Amino acid sequence: MKVYKIPEATVMRLSVYSRFLHQLIDEGITTVSSGDIARGVGVSSAQVRKDLAYFGEFGTRGVGYRVDELYGHLMKILGLDQAWNIILVGAGKLGSALALYQGFAERGFHVSTVVDVDPKRIGTKLGDVEVEPISVLQERVKEKNIRVGVVTVPASAAQDVTDLLVEAGIKAILNFSPRVLKVPHRVILRNVDLSVNLEVLSFNLALNR
Amino acid sequence: MKVYKIPEATVMRLSVYSRFLHQLIDEGITTVSSGDIARGVGVSSAQVRKDLAYFGEFGTRGVGYRVDELYGHLMKILGLDQAWNIILVGAGKLGSALALYQGFAERGFHVSTVVDVDPKRIGTKLGDVEVEPISVLQERVKEKNIRVGVVTVPASAAQDVTDLLVEAGIKAILNFSPRVLKVPHRVILRNVDLSVNLEVLSFNLALNR
DNA sequence: GACTGTGAAGCCATTCACAGCT
DNA sequence: AGCTGTGAATGGCTTCACAGTC
């Protein structure tokens, strides 16, 4: 893949396109145009074509794209042609919800380990995964070849567990805690900040009052 | 407020700055420079100053910003000088977790109503809020002056409950379902797509293999 | 000397518009 | 005629760099 720099926004849209295509497959639709996709996900058709153009030529001029074929390409591009083991740190309300979230499993993300510090939570089951003490973190990451960690601990503990994940050799972290985390450059970090999202809404609502 | 167009990225950073300032207040720090903030949240100091400049001049040249003062300005700008009632639609795993999430309450977002279609969930308590049937949605929105709705239902039900929220006069929607929702222009929509976030990570990990 | 506020420059993403296929 | 792929134009956000202020 000769890839210089793909905008993150493009990657996010590819993920959305791929889910839309999945819908079309379920509906038995076999061919789709960039305009159809655009209408389906709420972007412009030029945007769809540009996004795809980063990775190759997948369509046929005058016709469009074969749905199953394009879907396969997108899944490959997104790295979803393989399953990913992930470790979840923090088995509180949010952590438990994510551990049981169907949407992850559907896309090939398998929560293979859940750890927590709270003795009351250790030993409980989330689906078929048992909550383990945080001391097993390094061992599990190694033995299960886990590359992605999800942080769902309170803000005060977030940097500490992040350091543990980094030390264990994790490659990417999805952070749900409302804290700015420091990680080495080699580790990919994404933040899903629930409050920030609500605050963007309240900002916009507050604008016109 | 004479505001032309504030980049969304700016609004999101303001939210992060405000939380950082809150930390500083807890630590008893009274003055801060744009460089301090920049280091604390991982952006450039020019970025911090530009973001603030959209809204006025809050600092003193040669000195910096008064922490409590700047914090107050940011909270006002973000619309957090008032409490917001929010309605949560869908009391499944994720919905329950969000209903009980402390981070919302801390920032003045009060989950005042939770509704669901599942009879088994109706009548159960999430903290001090009782899950009610979806039929009360319109009534609750009106009587409690709710302007923000949070959608945490399965993808298949997402558009239907969104239509209900829009019809009830909701002003902004935070969507956690993996579906692209259609809303009228007057309604503000934000998506928190959990799978998309993981897929951006897997994309980046898959790049170098 | 230190730090803010800001015009200008640079950079990156989106949109336009059309040539090229089918 | 319809739709893709793409260079060029546009628009918008970020970084630079410095004048202004304490």
Give a written overview of the molecule.
Two copies of one chain form a homodimer. By secondary structure, chain A is of the alpha/beta class. Chain A has two domains: 8-77, Winged helix-like DNA-binding domain superfamily/Winged helix DNA-binding domain (Arc Repressor Mutant, subunit A), CATH 1.10.10.10; 84-196, NAD(P)-binding Rossmann-like Domain (Rossmann fold), CATH 3.40.50. Chain A is built from nine helices and nine strands. The longest helix of chain A has 19 residues, at 8-26. The N and C termini of chain A lie far apart (50 Å). The interface between A and B is large, with 59 and 59 residues. The first copy, chain A, binds a DNA duplex (22 and 22 nucleotides) through helix 3.
CATH architecture of the largest domain in chain A: 3-Layer(aba) Sandwich
Shape of chain A: globular
Beta-strand percentage range of chain A: 15-25%
Please tally the β strands of chain A and state the result. Answer: 9
Brief descriptors of the model:
homodimer; alpha/beta; Arc Repressor Mutant, subunit A; Rossmann fold; 2 domains; 7-stranded mixed sheet; two-stranded antiparallel ribbon; 9 helices; 18% strand; DNA-binding
